[in-house]
Amino acid sequence: MTTLTHSAPNAETVAAARLLLTQMGISPADLVTTGEAVPTFGEVIPKVRARLSAGTLRTYNTHFDHLLTAWADHRLDQLNKTDLEAMARTIQANARNNRASRGGTSAAEHFISATRCVYRYAEDNGWIRPCDNPARQLTMPVRRPSHRYAIPSGQLAEICHTTSTTGDDPELDTLILRLHIETACRRGGALALRPHDLDPDQCLIFLREKDGTDRWQPVSPTLMRHLLAHASERRSPQSGQLLRYRNGQPITARRFDYIWNRVGEALPWVAAQGISMHWLRHTTLTWVERTFSYAVAREYAGHRGKASGTTATYVKSHLHEVAAALSVLTNEPHALVPAHALAVRTLTTPPQGHS
Questions:
Q1: Helix or strand or coil: residue 40?
Q2: Which helix (H) or strand (E) holds 205?
Q3: pLDDT digits (tens, 9 = 90+) for 71-83
Q4: pTM of this prediction?
Q5: What is the Cα–Cα distance from 303 to 322, expressed in whole angstroms?
Q6: Residue 222 and residue 325 in one domain
């Protein structure tokens, strides 16, 4: 009778096996079967939603719904790159098209980001291997150039005048407009502002914007005074939203739409160009860049991504330079800027009602 014996593999065999697995993108742990089934989109997406911040969820939620509508009962490992690319193309083709849009590329970007978020959660839980993740293989669409530009000072004055003399609450709308002109903040930053984010001694407000970014931003004494008065008169809780209607209810993003629809009715060129609050950010930051420098404009905007070029690493701006730019912009002194540093160049006359 012949007895079969199994000798232990030698070191060269083990090294060769490990090299082969590495080239295939497989780890030894991947060869161990746990028996745990890959979950479906319907099972995973509610868990992903629960982990996201409110701002990120607002951006991704629509695209989570797209995934659930198409593949709620499908396991994550049942889809491939082709399936996801087809969905991204459909979303891009069906995106709302107006003068501010860029051919649906933003919608496609958000879909891809939302999908990657789902699959990254699956990777973290060991349900999907990185080499089997189809979301990693998706390519972001190329963005088209923005049609927005800096609004000329004469036209900006027309917008400010119309805002302050029309509508059901011109005091609120003028305050919103001035907040955006002075700080170049995004809509989310204005909506997230709270009374305890105000530092009246140093004329600073704390802005919280997209992707979890936050920063202290200088404002003029005039704007600070009106923000404090608004919070007091409209009973804004210290830890609640600052901007509110007369009845004490917090405003929503619809207020911004109301402002620009109203201004567009009075100024046809506003409606024709599709001008929105984000154009004010372009306007202020363009002025800061032209009047001071790219570094100051970048700091003023609160941009935290990688700067372009090696030199940008060394020529960073800081809060006091932003305050100096604001002083010139508003022609008002600022607590962080010595009086002799105040220049006389201004972007435009501040909106009426806050002089």
A1: strand
A2: strand 204-208
A3: 999 999 999 999 9
A4: 0.68
A5: 13
A6: yes
- Cα dihedral sign for 335, 339, 344, 350? positive
Kindly report which listed range (78-87, 115-124, 135-144, 197-206) carries the lowest average pLDDT score: 135-144
Q: Is 206 helix (H, G, I), strand (E, B) or coil?
A: strand
- Residue 354 covered by a domain: no
Asked if residue 25 belongs to a domain, the reply is no
Query: CA-CA distance, 203 to 185, in Å (whole number)?
Result: 16
On whether residue 237 sits in a domain, the answer given is yes
Q: Which residue has the higher pLDDT, 249 or 36?
A: 249
CA distance 56 to 224: 29
User: Which has the closest alpha carbon to 138: 218, 91, 77, 84?
Assistant: 84
- 151 in Cβ contact with 283 (< 8 Å): yes
Q: CA 335, CA 163: separation in Å to the nearest integer?
A: 29
Query: Please, are residues 278 and 184 in contact by the beta-carbon 8 Å criterion?
Result: no
Name the β-bridge partners of 207. Answer: 215
Cβ atoms 343, 328 nearer than 8 A: yes
3-class DSSP state of 131? helix
Structural domain containing residue 166: 153-341
Distance CA 182, CA 250 (A): 22
**Alpha helices of the chain — where are they, by DSSP H?**
11-23, 41-51, 54-71, 81-94, 105-124, 153-165, 170-183, 187-192, 221-233, 254-266, 268-273, 277-291, 294-301, 319-330
The amino acid at residue 149 is Y
CB 95, CB 63: distance < 8 Å: no
Give pLDDT tens digits for 21-53. Answer: 777 766 665 555 444 689 999 999 999 999 998
- Please answer whether residues 133 and 328 qualify as being in contact, where contact means their C-beta atoms are separated by less than 8 angstroms: no
- How far apart CA 163 and CA 262 sit, in angstroms, is 8
Tokens of 306: 């990688």
CB 74, CB 65: distance < 8 Å? no
- Whether 218 contacts 319, CB under 8 Å: yes
Considering its fold, how many domains does the chain have in total? Answer: 2
Q: What tokens were used for 325?
A: 């730019």
